[in-house]
Write a sequence for this structure.
């Protein structure tokens, strides 16, 4: 009896320790990644990096920065997010107010999850094929459209998760007072879920900024800052990738710095979305 | 009668009463109907998109699918576009190896972490774990790739490969045959970290669906917490866990940039986790866009994308169906 008692407690302690170690390993991985990027990127991170476009011979180690890529990424992800928002808000509202948890609702959710799972490189190839067919060159516009496809499922599912948690009384109260479903959607759900919607937008924005495979063929790459939708544009992830691909240590250093810039942007978006949703959540009906 | 006429003639002065004029019920219903139809059309978009992507890739890769037998394409191991020889086997095998290593490395620590967060941890630990996982999920693939280049590849080169060479090289799939750290294991480590947040959060959610009453009952009859987990919690969540792992595997299959940067990109059928490999997404990323001069090359690369897409669609649909059922059951109760 006593032996049995001791054995199971040793097993308990062993597995508890194992779980704690696993958790520390996962958390440590994040720390390790951020630390590596910071240590390698910081020495090469100069003011010129973020304020100048590449000058002649940039990829041989001469002057300039990656402003073209920073702005290009912001344009691409900003446009993609806006376009995705135009389509995802109606889908999320339709799921909530008209479909609910019905079978059709589940089919739509399934299709969104499947879309989310499609690798971004496939979107890139698909987009490029379409561009070839309609004669569009690699451009900001094409990049934005393809990125919006990548971001759409992320955004809808994130909105849907929050909208689903809305208290059902609110909706029923509005319906009982004679609102149409559209009015419920626009005036009650949208307002009540504003923090969730903003979180979803920022989540998708962060994903859009970081994605390289989808814009690789569709947005092209250039050293100039785009001034119209039809021009090709650079993006930060590709800037990192190309700079690391050169044989010059100085350019590779800049690649690390670019990766640091990208990481900082993404972290700001991620932390900002937590902060905003925490602040705005005070104003919603629980 | 007189009163009735009076009523019709007096238009109620809404502004004076401090009320707004409202659209009529008919107009509001029309708006509602119009919005419903528009929203419905937009909601069909995801399904249309899936069909369109699959169909277009199928149509565009048809030339090569009809020119060669499936066996030659998928199991042939010679890839020489200039001689019009397309065998996908090295790439398929490379994709499989990298994904398998990544998933195998990720699953045990992720399951234990999810169990820890769900069953043991203090709510404070949980509140810091959520942001950590969110940040891990938010880091862009290319940054993972840079981390892989800077930390994982040297680690494999200087630590893992010599260790394995010294002690484990008699096991065929651990043999070291190339001097660099650009290898399947490096890609696997990077992938493992990338899919960790997904596995942990899905498994955590599934664990939350197990009713607390069951845990309490088991603990009340004297089981330790680990016994409760082993005998009560885990048996109930196995389908969900499997689905979570399959979902993570499908995510890993399509990962492009991070893997591309650390895996070496040598078109060979790998024999060991220390060999370099050339996964399908890397093949597409490196070659698509500048292959216009060689006949069928374009179709071959689109066929690579199609293979990837079909495998991922199957994995994804199966795992999502299971997860919807598992997680939906909880919401109903």
């Amino acid at each position: 009896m006593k032996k049995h008692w001791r054995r199971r407690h040793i097993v308990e302690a062993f597995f508890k320790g194992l779980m704690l170690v696993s958790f520390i390993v996962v958390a440590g991985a994040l720390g390790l990644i951020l630390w590596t990027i910071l240590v390698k990127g910081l020495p090469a991170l100069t003011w010129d990096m973020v304020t100048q476009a590449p000058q002649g011979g940039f990829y041989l180690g001469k002057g300039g920065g990656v402003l073209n890529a920073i702005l290009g990424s912001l344009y691409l992800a900003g446009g993609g997010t806006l376009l995705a928002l135009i389509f995802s808000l109606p889908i999320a509202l339709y799921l909530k107010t008209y479909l609910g948890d019905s079978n059709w609702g589940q089919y739509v959710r399934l299709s969104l999850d499947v879309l989310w799972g499609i690798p971004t490189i496939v979107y890139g190839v698909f987009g490029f094929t379409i561009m070839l067919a309609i004669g569009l060159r690699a451009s900001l516009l094409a990049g934005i459209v393809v990125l919006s496809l990548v971001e759409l499922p992320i955004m809808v599912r994130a909105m849907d998760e929050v909208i689903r948690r809305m208290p059902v009384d609110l909706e029923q109260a509005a319906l009982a007072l004679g609102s149409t479903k559209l009015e419920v959607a626009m005036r009650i759900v949208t307002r009540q879920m504003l923090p969730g919607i903003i979180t979803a937008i920022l989540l998708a924005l962060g994903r859009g900024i970081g994605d390289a495979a989808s814009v690789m063929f569709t947005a092209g790459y250039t050293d100039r800052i785009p001034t119209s939708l039809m021009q090709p544009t650079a993006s930060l992830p590709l800037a990192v990738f190309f700079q690391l691909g050169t044989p010059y240590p100085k350019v590779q250093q800049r690649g690390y710095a670019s990766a640091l810039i990208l990481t900082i942007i993404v972290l700001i978006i991620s932390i900002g979305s937590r902060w905003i949703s925490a602040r705005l959540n005070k104003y919603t009906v629980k | 009668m007189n009163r009735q006429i009076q009523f019709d003639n007096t238009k109620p002065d809404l502004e004076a009463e401090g009320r707004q004029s409202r659209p009529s019920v008919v107009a509001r219903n029309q708006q509602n109907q119009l919005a419903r139809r528009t929203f419905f059309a937009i909601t069909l978009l995801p399904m249309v998109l899936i069909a369109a992507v699959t169909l277009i890739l199928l149509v565009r890769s048809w030339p090569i699918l009809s020119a060669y037998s499936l066996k030659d394409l998928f199991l042939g191991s010679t890839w020489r576009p200039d001689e019009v020889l397309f065998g996908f086997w090295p790439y398929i095998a490379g994709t499989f190896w990298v994904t398998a290593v990544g998933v195998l490395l990720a699953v045990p620590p992720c399951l234990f972490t999810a169990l820890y967060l769900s069953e043991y941890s203090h709510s404070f630990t949980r509140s810091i774990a959520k942001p950590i996982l969110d940040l891990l999920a938010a880091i862009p693939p290319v940054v993972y790739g840079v981390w892989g280049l800077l930390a994982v590849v040297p680690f494999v080169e200087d630590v893992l490969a010599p260790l394995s060479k010294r002690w484990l090289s008699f096991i065929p799939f651990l043999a070291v045959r190339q001097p660099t750290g650009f290898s399947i294991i490096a890609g696997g480590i990077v992938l493992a970290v990338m899919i960790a947040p997904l596995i942990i959060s899905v498994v955590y959610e599934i664990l939350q669906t197990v009713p607390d009453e069951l845990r309490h009952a088991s603990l009340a009859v004297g089981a330790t917490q680990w016994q409760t987990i082993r005998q009560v919690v885990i048996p109930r969540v196995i389908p969900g866990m499997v689905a979570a792992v399959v979902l993570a595997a499908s995510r890993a299959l399509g990962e492009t940039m991070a893997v591309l940067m650390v895996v070496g990109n040598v078109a060979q059928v790998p024999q060991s986790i220390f060999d370099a490999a050339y996964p399908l997404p890397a093949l597409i990323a490196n070659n698509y866009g500048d292959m216009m001069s060689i006949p069928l090359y374009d179709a071959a690369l689109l066929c690579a994308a199609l293979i990837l897409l079909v495998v991922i669609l199957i994995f994804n649909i199966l795992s999502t169906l299971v997860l919807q059922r598992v997680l939906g059951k909880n919401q109903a109760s």
